[in-house]
Amino acid sequence: MADWKVIEGGITAPKGFKSSGITAGLKPSNAPDLALIWSETEAIASGVFTTSEVRAACVDYCRQRLQDKASARAILCNAGQANAATGEQGWQDALDSASALAKELNIDANSILLASTGVIGQRIKMDAMLNAIPQLVSELSEDGGEATAKAIVTTDLVTKSIALETMIDGRPVRIGGIAKGSGMIHPNMATMLGFITCDGLVSTQLWQQMLKRAADKSFNQITVDGDTSTNDSLIALANGQSRTPAITSLDENGQKLEAMLTEVCQYLAKAIARDGEGATCLIEVEVTGASTEASARQIAKTIVGSSLVKSAIFGRDPNWGRIAAAAGRAGVPFKQEDLMIKLGDFLLMEKGQPLNFDRTSASNYLKQAAAGEYLKNDTVLISVSVGDGSSSGKAWGCDLSYDYVKINAEYTT
To answer: Where is this site: Cleavage (predicted)?
Structure first.
């Protein structure tokens, strides 16, 4: 049973954090497009970023800052322009953004991290951003979580936000998070962004390790379309304002904090997958019986990322063959005769052999029509077993609809 509870507040639920989100005129839609997350004190900072060789200026900026100094006070995020493939001027825009915000906050520019999302190849509208920074700072609030979540989205249909609380040594410790992402989602983290705040006190190295493991079990296990963005960033701040003892190892308190961090990341990751461009359902794949957790995750992600599997689910076709084929090409050895596939409670394959569809029997055999009806649910569960190993893993994605092509065909036109 989870040793935490869901609380209100999102990204500003942890003590010592404020945030804001405003309309700065960066988007043509006049929607919120500039966000700020701020810690009252210097916070331990960690990050996981895109593995793409084509990276936005903000990604290289954050990598450099975190290598030089693993702490931060603020995260500035703009929507509308990715500031990727913008050359030296895009890099200068990043530096100027941090400098202007630092002056307004009266802090060191090296304590600011950056994120951008939007159209690749477009520079940030710097005049609009610089003019909006004073308002952005003035609207910082402990109640700013929802406004901040709205200001980081692009093609998202909904905001993604969560906050959890647990007890460590008799005192509450909170983790809050927001994320954006709907298309270009296949983050080999290494257009998704995720921001995490925590008021626990944790060592620099351990916080980075926790975040990387949490990302591997969450954001690295989602796929909408198989495309990794130039801007994928997951940034986490821990400011220690809970006044709990420092966590420096994976003792009981360390494990509890990491488990809660992973839960926050998985919640946000699944919200991104469910909000995939044109999606009508969330697909969750769980693989069991593998020799290692990494192998199980690899098979699960291959299945959920298969365009044929995704298309079959959109068409309400319980096509076990596509699931089996995807599992077989995942690059993980297993015996075909050990393969078992279930769709919800419907058993499709056992011991490597498909089970016949039986339209008349009321027994445990699969009825094709009933299985097709199951695929109309908001969440579709695919269970796969590949042997008698002790490891398991999950991945999340969405179906592939006609609207996905329409949305992306019209994205910049």
So the answer is: 190-191
Residue 270 assigned as binding residue: no
Residue 159 marked ligand-binding: no
**What pLDDT is stored for residue 372 in this prediction?**
85
Domain range enclosing 387 = 282-409
| Tens-place pLDDT, residues 369-395 | 788 889 999 999 999 999 999 999 999
Q: Do 120 and 82 form a contact (C-beta atoms < 8 A)?
A: yes
- 331 and 267 fall within a common domain: no
Q: Are residues 210 and 316 in the same domain?
A: no
Domain boundary among 251, 274, 297: 274
**Domain boundary residue, one of 226, 258, 274:** 274
The model scores a pTM over 0.70? yes
86 is in an annotated binding site: no
Q: What is the CATH number of the domain that holds 297?
A: 3.10.20.340
**Phi/psi class of residue 346: alpha, beta or left (left: φ > 0; alpha: ψ in -120 to 50)?**
beta
The catalytic site residues sit at 191
Q: Rounded to whole angstroms, how far apart are CA atoms 34 and 133? A: 9
Residues 248 and 271: their CA atoms lie apart, in Å, by: 31
